[in-house]
């Protein structure tokens, strides 16, 4: 499977075209809109979320709520477009109109794509860069992830994400009774944290950062349960499942690090305290006594829960802006301010879910794939049976 996204932050719409989804999958616009609504929530979101109410429209590839096997097109309208029709319109404008154009940007913001992108594409108005590099693009990535989640649900695979840390506040209570319990508690938390006390402290930290004109980042975790053994491959670098997941997480705006299982903690431990002993019983077949490697060995799934974490840096758009240099005058200025969040970590956990769900679904469809969801389901069940009897 693959997908492409198109659209600018203040353009008329965001679009994604998804190819390779098997036929016969039941999906509705409401399935997608549920995930889009989750992305818009979270303590610390900015004014943009008060303007937009993201709703996806399926314009191809689905008939009577069943996928056809042909490309699926999803469109999300930008409500804020009404204020940007002249500034962001596709129609040509005169030199006089261009000289009078408001909101042109010549001062790059530290931490953004502004300056690098402007040099790369020779844009003197850096709005041409920031409109596409904006995290607004993740809207349709979440829409694509919603389709992936529907595929995985058919195969008995569940994906859930939550927040482990915001600023200096870390969740202490992370042991959940079931993945459904984890999903239920985090859906009720304004910061998507399973630890309620830590969640309250996280909100206070966000409020303090906002009051100071600053921003804070954090760490999110995504868990995948119900995976068959052997998804991915050890034979080539670009077929390893963990490498695909790592790339997907790091492709999310503002994410700067990724780890699996105990991750970087493994550097300070002996091998006997890192690797997961193999056990067997008649009911489950082969499993692991622990899950320190996060459900992945040799680039493949072990059948244990896949556990992947990503670190999100603080959003670089600040209300006490850092110093920059005007590309026209070369004089120092305070960086320009665009409407922004003080903390988007809770929303980023939803985006991370979508990114992980897409890569998992893509790997499963590739490995067990036929063009029909029912046939894929049979193949996955046969693989699970084989791993129990092997």
Q: Which features characterize this protein?
A:
alpha+beta, globular, 4-stranded antiparallel beta sheet, 12 helices, 35% helix, single chain, 20% strand, 5-stranded antiparallel beta sheet, 390 residues
- Write down how many β-strands occur, each being a DSSP E stretch of 2 or more residues: 17
**Shape category:** globular
End-to-end separation: 30 Å
- Secondary structure: helix percent: 25-40%
Major sheet = 5 strands, antiparallel
- The spatial strand order of the largest sheet comes to 8-7-9-15-10
User: Mean pLDDT score, rounded?
Assistant: 93
Helix-strand string: EEHHEEEEHHHHHEEHHEHEEEEEEEEHH
| Oligomer classification | single chain
Task: Describe the protein.
35% of the residues lie in helices and 20% in strands. The chain is built from 12 helices and 17 strands. The chain has helices at 29-40, 48-51, 85-88, 95-100, 114-121, 127-133, 138-154, 179-188, 196-211, 241-250, 345-368, 373-389, and strands at residues 2-6, 13-19, 56-60, 62-63, 66-67, 72-77, 158-166, 169-170, 218-225, 255-260, 278-281, 285-288, 296-297, 300-301, 306-312, 323-325, 332-334. A hairpin with a 6-residue loop joins strand 1 (2-6) and strand 2 (13-19). Helix 10 (241-250) runs antiparallel to helix 11. The longest helix is centred in the C-terminal third of the chain and has 24 residues, at 345-368. The mean pLDDT is 93.
